[in-house]
TetR family transcriptional regulator
Amino acid sequence: MKQERAAHTRQSLIRSAAEAFEQHGYVRASLAQISSSAGVSTGALHFHFANKAALASTVEASAAVVLRRSAQAAQRPDLNALQQLISTSHALADQLCHDAVARAGYRLNCETPHRTGLELRGEWQECVRHLLARAAEDHLLADGIACEDLTTSVTAATIGFEVLGRRDFGWLSPASLTRFWRLVLPRWATAPTLAGLDPEQRPATT
């Protein structure tokens, strides 16, 4: 029972910290505020986390876990590489829209990427590059489309959705991403590939 309570307290502190970092920023968020929102004492907070930096690092690491899990679930083996890219973008946007820990951890990492050694934007760029390289190998891309140029465009656009989504969750909605994919896919994909793509597809909830 003690271990269960300790695990519950730790998770409550992580979520409370994420909400505080998201609302006030890392510098202005206070440990007293975080512990109060979690319903525990500052002493209990310090039992789990030495300081605010340690708590922020844990929020970042937690965000990395859930975002990677969402990306992996979206890349189903029955989908071609372009459809996997579409589905992954929807899955990550949905996670950022509905999960405060994912949002706060991602934002903390983007603002101070060297604190934990994580580089979540870089991971997303590599994911995009990998899937587009596979799409090229499978002859899914139209003639004259350079993978590196496409990687730059997709990465920049989707990161832009995340930044704008900090103030307006509408940018992270399925409708926003669907409009983006409907706009660009006819230029990038071969005609036979385009006919089989679903710009709205998101992985099924498990």
